[in-house]
Known about the structure:
By secondary structure, this protein is α+β, with helices and mostly antiparallel strands.
Amino acid sequence: MSIFNGEGEAAPLDQEAFDLWAEIVPRDRIYAFNAKENFWQMGDTGPCGPCTEIHIFHGDEAPGDANREGRFGPAYEDSRYTELWNLVFMQFEKRDDGTMVNLPRPSVDTGAGLERLAAVCEGVSTNYATSLLAPLVAKAKELAGADPTKNLGPGESPFQVIADHARATTFLIADGVFPDRAGRSYVLRRIMRRAIRYGTSVGLDQAFFHEVCAKVIEDFGEDYPEIRERAATIDEVVRTEEEVFRRTLDRGIRRLDGALGDLDDDAVVFPPAVAADLYDTYGFPIDLTGVICKEKGLSLDEPAVEAEVRRRQEQSGGGKLGSDTGIADVYFELSHEHAKRFAFVGYDHEVVGDAEVLAIVSQGLVALEAGAGTEVEVIVDRTPLYAESGGQVGDTGWLRGQDGLAVEITDTQKPTGDLHVHRGVVRSGHLRAGTRVRVEVDHARRAAIRRNHSATHLLHHALREVLGPHVVQKGSLVAPDRLRFDFAHGKPLTAEQRQEIERRVNAAVLDNRASSTREMSLPEAKDAGAIGLFGEKYGERVRVVGIGAESVELCGGTHVFRAGDIGLFTILSEAGIAQGVRRIEAVTGMGALAEVQRSQEVLSEVAGELHAASIDEIADRIRRLYADLKTRDRTIADLRRKLTTGGPAADTVVDVDGIKLLAKQVEVADPKALRDAADALRDRLGSGVVVLGAAQNGKATLLVAVTKDLAGTRVHAGKLVGALAAHVDGRGGGRPNLAQAGGSNVGGLPEAIRGAEEALRAHVGA
């Protein structure tokens, strides 16, 4: 035990705590320490008080050394002791001047480590040997080919990290956190990547982390059923992250090893600019670079690396994606003032005939009235207009009143709480606070939004049926002209999967089941099989929407009355937008019909151009056409080579100090054909140098090819072509056996070819 020795502090020795402990344990096991060890305070000022702690001694016999002189016990980094429990006697308030006064209602703030308690109760020496973590450590060892029953001493650490991080990963993903670049998502990514890297250090060179996470689900799933329910999602996310990170790790470590090898032997600091390159080019985590540098005895200024990355992003225009704007105080004030008078009635009505104007906001300030042409934000006591929320865009419509008042509403937003703010322009008349108005939704636009929102639910359900239960919503947009749905999945859809998803959605539409909307508690919704957006926070009562026969989701949006109201559904596109996240864009109703008609029109036009009897023949005609084009390309390239290499080679070959030189200008527009020609001519020479010149796309190109017996010993192609490049106002270089130059002066090509002999002689004699 340890207690507070208040010598020189606000209180003397905590005799009361000492006496109480002395009733339980021998006095020589009770240590008295100063404020640094046994006085707790939350800051320079505020509640504080002495504390007493329970420590566990790891040994065969009790130490009994509390009264000995010297540096013994838990306050002196003595590894034999582990703190188990801390009790803070919160009895003082520390003030700015350093004085402390008694709290009117003192209390005890107590806390113990669950896993440390488990270790004590189970009679083991570390948290990792408890029944909570030992099976996970054993699983990691088993995967690495180590003996699961044997303690590896210092080599145990990697397996402990893997076990601890696998447990955290499993629960975070089950709670709706996915690895990403910011906030808690970045924390998850870091612990996953740290565990994976520790795995590679013990020979786990193939994906393994998902198997340890599966062990977490097996061991903890009975007490935490949510991780069992989301097992497929956890497996998919962990597999995808490890596959991507392993590629990053391999590339980055090769580059990092090279950079470490380039440092001076006496270097103690790793260059921040190089670490920034690793992050920019390879996606190699900055903190991981820091860990590896530390292992090599080097320091890394991580804040300096992050600053360098930000500087580069700003230079490239990628530093800011947009500016965050806070919610204006006026909205909080209006929400507080009118919260009890406001109601949204848009689920059941699209018109409110007699609403009161509660407030008008113009140019960020509350106004009593607004005339024609004024941009306004209007709050009414009852509205059918839906405010943008949950991916569904805000409604548009009209406010109309006496004396010709007409306000066009161009958007509806919810800046705070349930406060609906109608943004628009006064088109005619005069708008005044306190007057009565008719509020009407744009019916056609609302109907289109309903179709797309309900189709989004059917799409979500179809994706889970076709791809698996790991599919969860990652975001959405429901607009009148289209829908967009982002979901967790690591691979592109196949053509068959895309067609099956469309088929299932349209089958539900044709079934034409009535939609249902119910309000219930969150546990009741889960029991009903409702799907909720991961990471979303719900209240005690939730709105559950059923579309078609089986789609049931928590949702606050507006929906069709029957599934058949959606009309036709068709997918426009499917693509990846982030690691492990795919996006589908689709249309419904008349938008889907227009898309089908447009596709038919394009196909009919293509069929006509290909002289196909029907659309069904298009694919076969295109394949045949493509094969014909490839054959023609090969024929053309072959003819070019023959034209380039044909003719009496002896007429153009000269001897330069015992080296055969063939220099000529050719009519070739294809760079590959030019290289092929140079190779063919070089082979015909057996030993020598080939210089070719050609005009390509209005620019001059020179190519020098040298046979193996001369390349790098007597002739360097890169240096020779560099000398010739001046004739075409250009520059160039390359390998000893093959080099190329380009220039803007096409008229200089003949002079370059004529000058090849003199240039080679000068090069050989240099």
